Amino acid sequence: xxxxxxxxxxxxxxxxxxxxxxxxxxxxxxxxxxxxxxxxxxxxxxxxxxxxxxxxxxxxxxxxxxxxxxxxxxxxxxxxxxxxxxxxxxxxxxxxxxxxxxxxxxxxxxxxxxxxxxxxxxxxxxxxxxxxxxxxxxxxxxxxxxxxxxxxxxxxxxxxxxxxxxxxxxxxxxxxxxxxxxxxxxxxxxxxxxxxxxxxxxxxxxxxxxxxxxxxxxxxxxxxxxxxxxxxxxxxxxxxxxxxxxxxxxxxxxxxxxxxxxxxxxxxxxxxxxxxxxxxxxxxxxxxxxxxxxxxxxxxxxxxxxxxxxxxxxxxxxxx
Length: 320
Fold this sequence. Notes:
- By secondary structure, the protein is an alpha/beta fold.
- Helix content is 47%, strand content 13%.
- The protein has a five-stranded parallel sheet with strand order 4-3-5-6-7, with helices on both faces. The chain has a two-stranded antiparallel ribbon with strand order 1-2. Strands 8-9 form a two-stranded antiparallel ribbon.
- Helix 5 packs parallel to helix 7 and helix 7 packs across helix 8.
- It is rod-shaped and about 180 Å long.
């Protein structure tokens, strides 16, 4: 009996140990099966995600070239918030974090176009052009010409510049012409000079003086026409016959008439030559200047200057 009990006890122990070993084996097997099943499931999820990838297209630079962002289904979002999750999990492409469109910078206001500078009309000559004895006043012919131009074309369109000097002869005007041209770049030059030159001549020297003065006038014309303004244009030059006077009885006006004839026949290159300033102030009955239009023997009064200004305006208006 004792032997049998011992044998049964041994067998029970063996059975119990075997049962424990079997149980451990089952637990290990079950754990391995779970790991294997989870790995398979993960592979299937990844495969499904690759087959069902979502393509988000963003036109970054407005040229139609799309940058693609791929997100697998279920990757940190639900199917109902796929659009919003892109904005919430990344910075907006325009640099704002809240996804709002930034306020554009204000368009700069263009600088105003500068007003064009007025065109210059330069008057060259002696005391008659300077306006003696009304120098610097509104009674000179350049001042009256300015008023007429303003009335016709508007103030600020043209500026009449009076560069005449009392006592100037043709040679003095010639010596300064280039300086004035470079300073004013005129649209038109008005030239009336020679009275002081001819006043120095007598019956013996008149031919030489007229020829010399006409030669200097020609050089003035050449200098003006050779000048190039900044816009590439060349000044127009209008030449006037000189006015009559009451010097030396009728000799003074006779000498001026001879000089004017020389200008008309010899000067070339000018744009226009006219004689109205001579003829409108000349008295055919006395063969001298009209006394009603003269301040003294050689200079007009305000009425005479008004006539001269009107004559100049009728000549220059066509060039403006």
